[in-house]
Specification:
alpha+beta, Acetylcholine Binding Protein, Chain: A, Methane Monooxygenase Hydroxylase, Chain G, domain 1, seven-stranded antiparallel β-sheet, four-stranded antiparallel β-sheet, 6 helices, about 20% strand, Neuro_actylchol_rec, Neur_chan_lig-bd_sf, ion transport
Amino acid sequence: MRGPRQTFPTNDGLRVLLPHVHQRVQHAAQKLTSTAWLMVTWHDDYLTWDPKSFGGVERIFADPAQVWRPRLAIRNTMMDIRQLGNDYVVLQVDHHGRVTWYPAERFETYCQVIVTYFPLDVQTCTWDIDSWDADGVDLQAIKLDIDHSFYGNNGAWELVSSNVSKGNNKLVFQVTLKRRPGLLILNLILPVMLLGVVNIFVFTVPPESEEKLSFAITTLLSFGVFLSYILDLLPSSAETMSTMTIAMNGQFILSSLFVLLTILVLRLHLRDDNKHPVPKSLQSIIVKLEFIFRLGPPSTKVVPVVEVSTLPGQEDEQTTTKEVERFMKKAARKMVFDNHELMTWKRVSCSLDKILFRFFLLAVAISSTAAWIYVYLG
C-alpha cells in the first residue's frame, strides 16, 4: 500500500476566483448564492517526466477520472453535501508533477444575516472548504484574498472586501457585501415615510365629513401591507431586530391609535350640548391646551368690549394701539377661562383635532429623524 504522495508545497494550494454573486443575500433563508471557480494546485510525485524523453512535451491535459484529486467539500453548504468538481473539467499537469485543477461551482452557503440597519446593511458571509482525504492533505491558500479579476457588478450588492484564513483543517473564504439601497429606498422607505405624514392629516379632516374615519382605516390597512412585505424580506429567526421593522410596527400602532382617536373625536362632535353639557374640568383642559398650542380663538367666543379709558394707569391720549390690543387679548383669555357657557362639544372636537395634529406632527418628525440618524451612523 502506497503512502501519501500528494503535497501542497509553497505556491501550491487552493485559490478562489469569484466571477459573480448571484442576485442577493437571501435574508429570509439566510443564504448566500454565488458562482466561483476554484484554482486547486498540488504536486504529484508520480506525474513527473523528462521532456527530452517525450519529444519535448512539458505539459499535458489529463482526464480527471485517471488522476488523483483532493476530495474537497463545502462545510457550511445549504445543499446536499458532496465532493466539489466534475469529471468534465480536465487537469493541467506539467513535467515537474504540478497539477492544476479549475472546478467551477455554484455555492449556496449559510450566511448569518444581521438586519439591524436594513436596508443600509453590510453582510459578511463565508465559504468553509475542507478536505475529506484520509491521507493527511493539508490545505493551503495560494493568496490571502479572493481573485476579483472576473467579478461582474451586482445590482443589489456591492463587494466591499474579501480575505482568506485557515481554520481547523479548512480554508475560510470570507466576503463582505454592502447592499445598494437605492431601489428599496425608492419603493419602500419613501412611500412609508409619505404615508406616515399623510396619516397625521386625518386630524385636519372636518368631523362633519363622512370620510374621516374611512381615511384613518385605509391608512391603517396600508401600513399593514407594507409591514407584511418587510417581514417577507427578513428572516423570522434573526438574532437581531431590524430598526425598519421596529419603525413600521410603531407606525402601525400609531395608525391604530389614530383610528381610536378619530372615533373619539366623532363621538364628541355629535354629543348634545343640552343633554350633556361640557364638564368644567374638561373646559379648563381644552382652553389651556389651546393656549399652549397657540390655537386661534374659536368662532363661538365673544370678544369683550373694553373702553380705552378704563385702562389702569393710562390716559386716553397716551394709550397706544399695541397696548390696547394686548389688554384686550388678556381680557378675552380671562373671559374664556371664566365663562364656561362658551364651550360646546363641537368646539371640543375641533380643538382636539388641531391639538392632536400639531402634537403628532412634531412627534413623528422627531422620531423619524432620530431613527434615520441611528441607521445612517450605524
